[in-house]
Each structure stands twice: as structure tokens, then as C-alpha cells.
Amino acid sequence: MTESPTPYVLDADTMTGGMRPIRQGVIAIGSNLGDRHARLQGAVSALEDTPEVQVVAISSVYETEPVGAPSGSEKFLNAVVLIDTTLTVHTLLDRALAIEDAFGRERSEPNAPRTLDVDVIVVGDRVADDESLQLPHPRAHERGFVLVPWLEVDPEGQIPGQGFVADLIGDIDTSGVVKREDLEILL
Ligand SMILES: Nc1ncnc2c1ncn2[C@@H]1O[C@H](COP(=O)(O)OP(=O)(O)OP(=O)(O)O)[C@@H](O)[C@H]1O
Ligand SMILES: Nc1nc2c(c(=O)[nH]1)N=C(CO)CN2
């Protein structure tokens, strides 16, 4: 009989000898400004280059109608990335924000056009609600631009407290979420 590896690593942050579990995370990326596809590709490459993050799956690229954005806003390209990570959720958020900054995002008004948006949707069953981080992402369950690409790469996906992605999709209008067969994000 073969022994499967224990999914724990030594906790290098605290040096306590504690162990942090490997958790599966879901990251949503979006862009509606400039070279949208190049920015999504750059975000995935930057995630993969992050120590303690391993990209497990990348969805197709979807072109999506802007949600909650001023009328006349450009369409977004969106995708979802599944990762395995041993990072703490706050360190993962810091990395997501650093990747946004690296691609020149300027924070102006809410829902302003963005070169790159990197949202942490879920990390295993972790729940957070503080000034910097809310987990699960509080609006993910009603966003077709998150749920449609997520279902593609993770048919069993679920949002703690909300339910299965496959069921949540049934409650929303996904007509504004269209797969771009001509585009692909590579690892
Ligand atoms: N799960 C999360 N993922 C990403 N950012 C989060 C999360 N929870 C809280 N935040 C906070 O939200 C801030 C980013 O807000 P931002 O301006 O990107 O919102 P948005 O992307 O326009 O809208 P939305 O939050 O609805 O996607 C970050 O500074 C971060 O601290
Ligand atoms: N289609 C689409 N709409 C949005 C998006 C997005 O990524 N795609 N992101 C938002 C804020 O995070 C607000 N609206």
C-alpha cells in the first residue's frame, strides 16, 4: 500500500514549528482597460511566481458586460484561477493587491475602469471579516463573471455559507458572460 503525503508544511512565518495546511483557493481576475488579455496573462504568471502558491487550473477567458459600472464602460475580460496555497489569507490578499499594483492599477472611484482586478474569492473554508479582507468574497455568489469561469474549472465548487456554484448560477442572469474561444491564458 502506498502512503499519500501529508498536506502540511512547516510554518516559515512564525518559526514556531507549527504547520499550515495546503488550502485550495479561488482567485478571480478581470480587466477592462488597455491590453486586457495581456494583463490577465501577467496576473496568472505573477501568481505562479509566488512562493507558496501553485496554480492548479485556469479557466477560459470570458468577455463580460460590466456589472455596477458607469454606463458606457468597456466590457471586461474575466477568468478564474484555482490555486493551492500555504499562505495565510492576509498574505495572499497582500500578494493579490501587489499584483494589481504591478500592472499599474490606479484606485479612483468605486467600479472605475481597472487595468487589473485580482479578487480572492474563497480559500478553503476560511472565513474573514475585517477592515482589509472579507472571505468568502461578499459579492461572488451573485456575479456571473466569477461563477461561470469557476464552474468550468471546478464543477464541485462551493462558497461557504452560500452553496454550490452550480446551483448559484441557476439564480442569476449569465447572458452577459461569453466565452472568448480565440483567447487563452497559459501557465
Ligand atoms: N476577498 C477580497 N479580495 C480582494 N480584496 C478584498 C477582499 N476583501 C476585502 N478586500 C478589500 O477590497 C479592497 C479592494 O477594493 P476594490 O477597489 O478592488 O474593489 P472592487 O474590486 O472595485 O470591487 P469588489 O470588491 O466589488 O470586487 C482591497 O483593498 C481589499 O483590502
Ligand atoms: N463584468 C465585470 N464587471 C465588474 C467586474 C469584473 O471583473 N467584471 N469587477 C468589478 C469590481 O471588482 C465590478 N464589475
From TrEMBL:
<keyword id="KW-0067">ATP-binding</keyword>
<keyword id="KW-0808">Transferase</keyword>
<dbReference type="InterPro" id="IPR000550">
    <property type="entry name" value="Hppk"/>
</dbReference>
<feature type="domain" description="7,8-dihydro-6-hydroxymethylpterin-pyrophosphokinase">
    <location>
        <begin position="26"/>
        <end position="155"/>
    </location>
</feature>
<comment type="pathway">
    <text>Cofactor biosynthesis; tetrahydrofolate biosynthesis; 2-amino-4-hydroxy-6-hydroxymethyl-7,8-dihydropteridine diphosphate from 7,8-dihydroneopterin triphosphate: step 4/4.</text>
</comment>
<protein>
    <recommendedName>
        <fullName>2-amino-4-hydroxy-6-hydroxymethyldihydropteridine diphosphokinase</fullName>
        <ecNumber>2.7.6.3</ecNumber>
    </recommendedName>
</protein>
<keyword id="KW-0547">Nucleotide-binding</keyword>
<keyword id="KW-0418">Kinase</keyword>
<keyword id="KW-0289">Folate biosynthesis</keyword>
<dbReference type="Pfam" id="PF01288">
    <property type="entry name" value="HPPK"/>
</dbReference>
<dbReference type="InterPro" id="IPR035907">
    <property type="entry name" value="Hppk_sf"/>
</dbReference>
